[in-house]
């Protein structure tokens, strides 16, 4: 979308071309829901085909590569319960998440096949915020300049740690103040998902140097709603919402209003100057009247007071 944020017809320099797209269903939290449904369906199908009992009791849990080592959890969908235990294999988690990039079951949505505006990675700069920032900073403490090998190594190390160790680190204050139990539990999954979305979904090169994860840009919090506002304002100025004839009439009115406002301004200045002149003339007139009054007083004193004094001389 191309839109103008200029305030009138003469100001056309604020032209922007913006590409905005929302990939619904591919955010971290919703992706986790889809992942759990995938694990449930695949495990129950596997049990049925091979007469197995995987995940049906705490003693025989499904070993989830996307949860930290030793973390025990249960997944419940439609009256079915699956017992899981984390095995902390980040690379296996990345591979397991690949089908989720194609969208949910029965949906045509796809992050891999969806249209995305062409990107010149040799001449571009990107900021990752929201989940991208939390995923790199809250636990891994890698917020800022993104480096794929460094991020991969830190994510693998985190996933391979036992849940008890991660909990001790959390209570010891080794993670960000924004980190909580939910972040601790799903950091392994979300780091693998973010990696897949970034490099498989959006095709960012593994050696791309100009991506920063951030919460603030120029001391302002960055949110996806800013992109939505930019998209909504593509019809600004409001004259673009009207028909061409109405827009032309509106532009003519703006020009007339511009001329009228200038005449009004000069008229106000003239009135103010005249008022100041009249006020000065009035002050001058008052001053002259006071001088004449003072002169009359002196003459009266000279004629009355001085002769009386001469009559008293012996």
From TrEMBL:
<keyword id="KW-0378">Hydrolase</keyword>
<dbReference type="GO" id="GO:0006256">
    <property type="term" value="P:UDP catabolic process"/>
</dbReference>
<dbReference type="GO" id="GO:0045134">
    <property type="term" value="F:UDP phosphatase activity"/>
</dbReference>
<keyword id="KW-0812">Transmembrane</keyword>
<dbReference type="GO" id="GO:0004382">
    <property type="term" value="F:GDP phosphatase activity"/>
</dbReference>
<dbReference type="GO" id="GO:0046036">
    <property type="term" value="P:CTP metabolic process"/>
</dbReference>
<feature type="transmembrane region" description="Helical">
    <location>
        <begin position="263"/>
        <end position="281"/>
    </location>
</feature>
<dbReference type="Pfam" id="PF01150">
    <property type="entry name" value="GDA1_CD39"/>
</dbReference>
<dbReference type="GO" id="GO:0005794">
    <property type="term" value="C:Golgi apparatus"/>
</dbReference>
<keyword id="KW-1133">Transmembrane helix</keyword>
<dbReference type="InterPro" id="IPR000407">
    <property type="entry name" value="GDA1_CD39_NTPase"/>
</dbReference>
<comment type="similarity">
    <text>Belongs to the GDA1/CD39 NTPase family.</text>
</comment>
<dbReference type="GO" id="GO:0017111">
    <property type="term" value="F:ribonucleoside triphosphate phosphatase activity"/>
</dbReference>
<keyword id="KW-0472">Membrane</keyword>
<dbReference type="GO" id="GO:0016020">
    <property type="term" value="C:membrane"/>
</dbReference>
<protein>
    <submittedName>
        <fullName>ENTP7 diphosphohydrolase</fullName>
    </submittedName>
</protein>
């Amino acid at each position: 979308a191309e839109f103008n944020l200029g305030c009138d017809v003469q100001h056309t320099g604020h032209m922007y071309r913006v590409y905005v797209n929302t990939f619904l269903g591919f955010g971290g939290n919703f992706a986790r829901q889809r992942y759990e449904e995938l694990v449930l369906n695949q495990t129950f199908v596997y049990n049925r085909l091979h007469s197995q009992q995987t995940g049906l009791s705490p003693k025989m849990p499904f070993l989830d590569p996307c949860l930290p080592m030793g973390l025990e959890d249960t997944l419940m969908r439609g009256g079915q319960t699956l017992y899981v235990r984390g095995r902390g294999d980040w690379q296996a988690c990345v591979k397991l998440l690949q089908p989720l990039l194609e969208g949910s079951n029965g949906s045509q949505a796809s992050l891999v096949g969806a249209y995305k505006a062409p990107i010149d990675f040799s001449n571009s700069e990107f900021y990752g915020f929201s989940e991208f920032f939390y995923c790199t900073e809250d636990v891994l403490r890698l917020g800022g300049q993104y480096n794929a090998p460094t991020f991969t190594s830190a994510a693998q190390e985190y996933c391979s740690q036992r849940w008890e160790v991660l909990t001790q680190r959390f209570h010891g204050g080794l993670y960000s103040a924004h980190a909580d139990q939910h972040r601790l539990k799903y950091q392994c999954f979300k780091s693998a998902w973010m990696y897949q979305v970034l490099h498989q979904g959006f095709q960012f090169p593994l050696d791309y140097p100009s991506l920063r994860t951030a919460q603030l840009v120029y001391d302002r919090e960055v949110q996806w709603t800013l992109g939505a506002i930019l998209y909504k304002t593509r019809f600004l100025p409001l004259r673009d919402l009207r028909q061409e004839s109405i827009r032309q009439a509106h532009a003519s009115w703006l020009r007339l209003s511009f001329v009228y406002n200038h005449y009004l301004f000069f008229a106000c200045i003239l009135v103010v100057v005249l008022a100041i002149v009249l006020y000065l003339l009035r002050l001058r007139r008052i001053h002259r009247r006071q001088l004449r009054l003072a002169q009359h007083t002196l003459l009266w004193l000279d004629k009355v007071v001085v002769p009386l004094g001469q009559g008293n001389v012996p």
